[in-house]
Structures are given as structure tokens and as C-alpha cells.
Amino acid sequence: MINNSLIVKSNAVIDASYRLTLNEQRLILLCISQIKKGADVSEKTLFSIKASEFSEAFNIPLKTAYRELQAVADRLYDRSATIYNPDPDNPSITQLKTRWISSIMYIGDGQLSLGFAAHMIPYISMLEGRFTRYSLDAITGMSSTYGMRFYELMKKWQTETGTTKFNYEIELERLKEILDLKGKYQAIKDFKKYVLEPAIKDINNCTDLTANYAQRKTGRRVTHLSFNFSTDEQIKIRLEGGSTGKIRINNSYIEKHARPGESYEQAGKRLKEEVKKQTE
User: Fold this and answer.
1) Whole-number Å distance between alpha carbons of 67 and 57
2) Measured between alpha carbons, how far is 83 from 85 in angstroms, rounded to an integer?
3) Chain Cα centroid distance, residue 111
4) Which whole-number Å values give the CA distances from 193 to 55, 189, 215, in the listed order?
5) How confident is the model at residue 75 (pLDDT cuts 50, 70, 90)?
6) What is the chain's mean pLDDT, rounded?
7) What is the mean pLDDT of residues 121-140?
8) Neighbouring residues of 241: CB distance < 8 A, sequence distance ≥ 6
9) Which of 82, 112, 115, 122 has the alpha carbon at shortest distance from 101?
């Protein structure tokens, strides 16, 4: 299934400055999930997406997927990303601005094919630098535009440290630069209301991470945000009506649902497998 696919992105792209809508990010991730390890990817390599696949992967009504897919691709064609220090061997290059895609083919009947831009390919095909990996299924239930960006940043920070529990502090202005929000949301209350808090709520409700944040002031102004996050023991499930939720497979849950004669380990393994089947 599509949802079991692996997303692999260069850390340089995760740290890049760009702003994409929720569905634009979804379309890019569906394309990236098709890239196999060791595959030779070029501008001529096309990634085909059907409206039915888009609908199934992100639980979007099929009619909406048909309507949105072409519009999303059209907008994506004009989107770009700014990658900082793109070539470690040539530090004189401080920025690289590149489009995400270079071509779109409309096939009809709710299907299209995309080709990535030449300068973007090394960063999404494991040819350049360090990479962060996560399952597409981990983010399919997300509904916040910025939630996916924060999720990828946290996964990158985890990858860099090799730990599942982590605290990371970042300058507020640097974070806005990554999110392509420089000069916007000057009041911290607005940034928290429209960007930060919806993203953290989305991560906690829909992904394999649990996260919270704190702020640090320099003088009277908030200048830094500190994120505490960890990979939790919850398993995401599909609820009635198409929304997503989590079940925490903890001691009390296992004890409550264990079968007669099962050991704690046996019951825990069985329950996790049963719950995971609900996402397949």
C-alpha cells in the first residue's frame, strides 16, 4: 500500500526555506515515496499520481481529489525552495534557489505525472548529504500546513542525535526563515495561534511523536523556542468518519485486553499488531 512507503529527504531540504500548502506537500511526498533506494533519477524520470491514490492516501473524498490534483500540480510548478550552503565542498555558494518540479504531464481521467527539477533531485534521491527517513503513514492524517514541516524538523533533529527523546532550541527568526515567514506574525501570540499551536496539536493527534514547546525571552521579546518531543508508544488508527486518533499501548491497556494465559510480552505484541492492522 502507498501508506507503507518510506519518505527520504535530505536534511538540507528539510532546513530549506519554502512554503507549500498542505496538498502541495502531500503531492510531493507521494512522488518521493515512489523513489526506490539506488534508483537513477533524472529530470526525465516521471512520477505518476492518480486521483484515487491521492484520495486513499490522505482520506480525501474522491471527487475532491479529482478537482484538487490538477490545481495543486499547477501551483506547485511555480513553487521554489531556497537551500542554504548546498555544497559543503564549495562554501562560497551560500544559497541555491530551485523549483520543486520542472514538468507536468496531464494524462486525463484523474492522473498526472511530475518530473522533479534537476537541482532538487539530489536532495530527494539520496545522492546528496545526510537524510531523514520516516513512514508516509506517519503523516497522512495531518491537516495542518505547518504540522508537516515541524514533524520533519523534529524527525531530522532525532536523526542527527540518534535519540528518540530530545530537546531542541531554535531562534525564532531562524524558524520563520525555514517556514518562509520572515516579516510575518510579528506578534508572538499570532505566530503561536496560527502556526505553532495548530502544528503541535496536529503532531500530537496524528503522528508517532509527542511534542510540546517553551519560549525563551531576551529582554522583553521572545527570541527562542524550545521543543521537547519523543517517539511515543501510541499507534495511530483510523476512526469512524475518516479522522485519525491514537491508542496508547501501555501497561494498563495491555493488562485490560490480555487474554487468559498470555504473558505480558505476548499480549503487548498481539495488541500492537491488531491495532496496526486498522491502518492498513
Assistant:
1) 16
2) 7
3) 23
4) 29, 6, 14
5) very high
6) 86
7) 85
8) none
9) 115
φ, ψ for residue 140, nearest 5 deg:
-65, -25
Q: How far apart are CA 256 and CA 132, in angstroms?
A: 37
Neighbouring CB atoms inside 10 A of 230's CB total 16
Cell of 22: 498542505
Model confidence pLDDT, tens digit, residues 8-53: 999 999 999 999 999 999 999 999 999 988 889 999 999 999 999 9
Q: What DSSP string describes the chain? A: -GGGPEEEEEHHHHTSB----HHHHHHHHHHHTTPPTT----TT--EEEEHHHHHHHHT--HHHHHHHHHHHHHHHHT-EEEEES--TT-TT--EEEEESEEEEEE-SSSEEEEEE-TTTHHHHTT-SS-EEEEEGGGTTT---HHHHHHHHHHHHHHHHHT-SEEEEEEEHHHHHHHTT-TTS--SHHHHIIIIIHHHHHHHHHHSSEEEEEEEEEETTEEEEEEEEEEE-SEEEEEPGGG-EEEEE--HHHHHHHPPTT--HHHHHHHHHHHHHHTT-
* C-alpha cell belonging to residue 73: 500540480
